[in-house]
Amino acid sequence: MRGSLLVDNIGELVTNDIGGEGGPLGIRRHAAVLVEDGQVAWVGPARDAPAADRRIDAEGGAVLPGFVDSHAHLVFAGDRAAEFAARMAGEPYTGGGIRTTVGATRAASDDELRDTVRRLRAEAMRQGSTTIEIKSGYGLTVADEARSLRIAAEFSEDTTFLGAHVVPAEYADRPDDYVGMVCGPMLAAAAPYARWIDVFCERGAFDVDHARAILACGQAVGLGVRVHANQLGPGPGVRLGVELGAASVDHCTHLTDADIDALASHRVDCMCPDGVHTTTVATLLPGAEFSTRSPYPDARRLLDAGVTVALATDCNPGSSYTSSMPFCIALAVREMRMTPAEAVWAATAGGAAALRRTDVGRLARGARADLMILDAPSHLHLAYRPGVPLIRQVLHNGVPQCRP
Ligand SMILES: [Zn+2]
């Protein structure tokens, strides 16, 4: 959108910008934000605000950076509502239901898959997610993984090749052959549309040797590494991620002291509250524990050890069919003992760190003009008023997404 836009009458501005007063969220009061050419051009006291072509009156609502949802599986067909109902009636979650979605996804047309991604992308945007990572992983053939990523790339800059989600049924007795295909023709077809490679390193999915081999092949063609690790039980996934310099290890529900030490011991300079974050971010996905009725990850143990924590939705039809970052914030605060400030930071700047991005997750000069205006005076309300649609307006690249 052309011209400048001033957002003012802000109740509380969360910048995630360090260096000033305002605590870890870099909170400013009586502030205004000037947007130009899709970027934040100026942040400062409202009384000093420059003239602008247009104005948005925040009416005393809080303004936050758009959420950065760094873990979502949006390219699929069908749903698994019946499996959810059975689980709530007492059946355990095993991850085996992924194959149900694989069958439906292979049978779907490109347009059906595209419509699902578009619908979920819009749903997430209405709930404040201006950045969302999108994984493949329900195709599991060369052609179906490539088209999943081609469609994902129409909606996100952060696309992730997850050909190693599960071993598909037709390879059940020869997993080595499947790993060979993932590293060979499937990676070659997927890589042009992917920024990242990911593996589900878990009992029943891929063991550590297969996971290491697949991730190394991805790194060799320039993809960044992420790992689904330690979700269903303890295992080597988190330490493998640290060993390979992964941007993020995701789930982290079952961690040993050695896992936490490994995460905490590698640090890089950043724009975080303490000026450093861990090379590998621990991304927590409480929607998965909620939807599988499982124990939540121990966020306090990670935070107290100095590990950088992100929150994401894990939006997928099996184990966490929510696109709502506010819901995940509420879970993180109520169930995982994160403070509201820690949870909001993890859902914005933490997600950006997990995607190794510095242009999103904060509101400062030069950042992308991705922000939300709440129908509430402070970020606290995101956890304090669970389930309430508090997001009145979202700007993405400086463009208003919805009108009240
Ligand atoms: Zn996932």
How would you sum up this structure, described in words?
- This protein is of the alpha/beta class and 404 residues long.
- It is 33% helix and 22% strand.
- The protein has helices at 81-88, 98-107, 110-126, 142-152, 175-190, 208-220, 237-243, 257-264, 286-292, 299-304, 325-336, 340-347, 349-354, 381-384, and strands spanning 4-8, 12-14, 27-28, 31-36, 39-45, 54-57, 62-65, 67-69, 129-132, 134-135, 159-164, 196-201, 224-229, 248-251, 267-269, 276-278, 281-284, 309-311, 371-374, 391-396, 399-400.
- The strands form 5 sheets. The chain has a 7-stranded parallel sheet. Strands 3-2-7-19-20-21 form a 6-stranded mixed sheet, with no helix packed on it.
- Helix 5 (175-190) links the parallel strand 11 and strand 12 (196-201).
- The two termini are 19 Å apart.
- Bound molecules: zinc ion.
- Zinc ion (ZN) is lined by residues 71, 73, 228, 314, 316.
- Residues 71, 73, 228, 314, 316 line the site of zinc ion (ZN).
Please state the average pLDDT score: 94
Count of β-strands:
21
Tally the helices.
Answer: 14
List low-pLDDT spans: none
Percentage of residues in DSSP E strands: 15-25%
Largest sheet: 7 strands, parallel
User: So what's the overall shape?
Assistant: globular
Distance between the termini: 19 Å
What ligands does this structure carry? zinc ion
Percent helix, as a range, is 25-40%
What structural category arises from helix and sheet content? alpha/beta
Instruction: State the strand order across the main sheet.
Output: 10-11-12-13-14-17-18
Overall radius of gyration: 21 Å
